[in-house]
Specification:
Blueprint lengths: L3 H19 L7 H20 L3 H5 L2 E8 L6 E2 L1 H11 L4 E12 L5 E13 L5 E14 L5 E10 L24 E3 L5 E3 L3
Parallel strand pairs: 1-6
Antiparallel strand pairs: 1-2, 3-4, 4-5, 5-6, 7-8
Amino acid sequence: MKNAPNFAIAATALAMLVLSGCSETPKDTRAADETSIRALDAQWSKSAAAKDLDATVGYYQTDAAILAPNQPIATGPAAIRTAWSAILTPDSSISWQANKVEVARSSDLAYIQGVYQLTSTDAAGNPSIDRGKFVEVWKKQADNSWKVVSDIFNSDMPLKTAPAPTPAKKSGRHARGKKSARHSSGQRYKGVQ
């Protein structure tokens, strides 16, 4: 019985030690994560500029999505590869730069805002420059690497407007003097006067 108080003291000390370890705040890695993500994004831009399709699509998580302007969402590796194949043509060049990187306090998600420039040449050799902005969402993987889960971009350039339609001529009356109208199906029918 002499050892009972010592055992109780030791058990209490051990429990306090274990509990103090459980309440320890995880180390804040946001600054290091931001540096890593900026470096990854810069390397990704270089891969795209070099037209390295495999490297370019390798920055995405397998269930990632691209939200490009005037196109449906491209989700998954095959759709992402197709979307990038249309961008990384022999007659084009692309580059981008991050302006802002924000890492979540939990250090498992981050986003980047930035600007891009896409230059392409049409069949006649005329250059076309598109400048715009983007947002990328990055997610930390199980191995602590970072992959893009969502990529959205859109142009700063004004929309090209189509020429105004030519007004249709008014048809007036039929030769027999009866009014004519159109059903929603486009067929003519004769009205009652």
